[in-house]
Amino acid sequence: MLKGWNGRILWIDLSNRKIKIHEYDGSFAQKYIGGRGFAARILWDYLPPGLDPFSPHNLLVIATGPITGLPGPSTGKLVVAAKSPLTHGYGDGNIGSLGAVYMRYAGYDALVVTGKSEKPVYLHIYDGKVEFSPAEDLWGRDTFTSERILRKKHGRNTGILLIGPAGENKVKLATVMSQEGRSGGRPGIGAVMGSKNLKAIVFSGDRLPELHDPEEYKKLAAEAYAEIKKKPAYSFWMRQGTMSTIQWSQANGVLPTYNFSEGVFEFSENIDGNAMERVKKGQRGCPNCNMPCGNYILDDTGEISELDYENVAMLGSNIGLNDLAKIARLNRLADMWGIDTIGLGAALGFAAEASQSKIIEEKIDFGDFNSMLELSEDIVYRRGLGDLLAEGLEHASLKLGGDEIAVHVKGLSVSAYDCHAAPAMALSYGVSTVGAHHKDAWVISWEVAHGRFEYTRQKAFRVFELQRIRGGVFEMLVSCRLPWVEVSLELDWYVRLFNLATGLSWTWDDFLIAAERVLTLIRAFWVREFQAEGKGWHRGRDYPPKKWFTRPLTKGPFKGARLDIDRYDEMLGAYYSYVGWDHRGIPRASTLERLGLTDVRKDLESFIQLTY
Amino acid sequence: MGKIKILYYGFVTELVGKTFEELDVSEEKTYTLKSILNPILLPHLGRIFFLVNDRPAELEHPIRVGDEVKVLPHIGGG
Predict the structure, then answer these.
(1) Residue with more model confidence, A413 or B28
(2) What is the CATH number of domain A8-204?
(3) Which of A91, A143, A206, A318 has a beta carbon 3.0–4.6 Å from A256's, enabling a disulfide?
(4) Residues of A whose CB is below 8 A from B76
(5) Which helix (DSSP H) or strand (DSSP E) does residue A214 occupy?
């Protein structure tokens, strides 16, 4: 009998409205832990290779971990995953949501949705039951309005995941949303939900998973919360949250500016954490969190908008906007539409530079709020140039001929750190599990502190090390990494909470092995899908955007800086040697064996010859 | 005499109670980063780092008139 885990995964087929419950055992739980680990394994096992991501057979996986929803620092999160329509590889994201808590309380650790409903539908999952309800009246409505309607109907003690017009229109930047500001699934997971005509999922329940030692767990969780509040960085964090990073990035020349052309923004003081503090109205966060990061202000129309670093950098400096209230409006609308704020900022920045360079005829100026707003709407509702950008940066730039100014990796746009003078961070983006995302190996702080211009094996190792912790352990548990990264809550707290919940006696090394297994499994998935689709896999797929190699910075402390392609490639090779992948970036057969993925080795060999 | 500028970021501003300061120093004396730092920062070394003229610096790094020092927190990046 498992403790900590519910041991049950709910499968729902929307095409025939059938459900089944898959019970799993301790060996599966210990090998993949939960969250991203469960999602990656389910996609590997059950997704037909080479599948069109908008096929009804794509799997929408929503997964939690063994401490999700339990009292404990920032444990109210879940992972949403699918084969990405944006990248055609593995795609996922995490969301802080009561959905995570109530899915666990409903008795499940994960939900897999397959098939496609004939008409718009939403699901209510509770007490071992699944209700399919018509969602025609919600279809077309924004995420805030829809969630309010559903909450009124199903009560306060529910967790709701849903999509907005972007997901409905299969915009490949669409995310899954919750609680009017929580967003996840940058690689178009909201579009997968839309392709299934699934508007929302409502979870409710009251059954806490059985724990190994509930009393000691509760005690330790309370101590962990208290420890967070004692940390020296806590008080400042509560004032500014991630918004202080604007000033930090400006100081270090990594603030994305004018479509990642520069690392400093001349108006950064208008949009930084201090500017936010002057107009801050409050803050809110995810369930079970005592250091909420969602600072909210009123936008220029008087509506509440929740800001964080990535949103403000990408919808601010990256598109030349220097008015925080206007940035807040774009940000709020993006959340209401259910579109990735990072991807939207990247698309708008690309369009402005393409306009400047006469790659497109449309006039879109950096800093021009009205044209940015209009283009955003066009993306969400797929009109004109917006329709092309809704397909993603890679597709749009190849079609228009602006490949060199499209800032993405594997189709996923780069999040808010410029890497002209940050080779380790560029590597982190290059080899991230979902395309260019900061969540896996956020190495830039370490790199700035240790030297910007070196291309070393040590940097490659540091990327691998951080990937295992951030992209591995935290994404599998599923728990927010911010208590660790922002206020220095020691990692050992998570090991102790896990052991008290499950009754296991794991060490930190056990977590790292599981993390390495899942990161390699995800890479195997990418290779399998690209081979099956006939695109092929090669080392160049792990390269960062061309722009960072070819167009140097023109201002700031690192004026003239750009990446060196040969030295980057050398560092990439060092990374491959640490993770046990071959010169093509494909897991070696021996690595798959070592990580207990023999069956994956056998399957993968039918798509490509492996190196031993 | 000359000046050294020190800029503070993030939670470091709360520790020292300011966002920047300028120190008057002698051109004839030799300074290190440690010798000019507010000692209140020393217990927090694992959580903060230093740049001198935008290059990483350890505590024994020599400091000269005209240098700009940044004291930054290690942050986590969302």
Answers:
(1) A413
(2) 3.60.9.10
(3) A318
(4) 442, 445, 481-482, 484-486
(5) helix A214-230
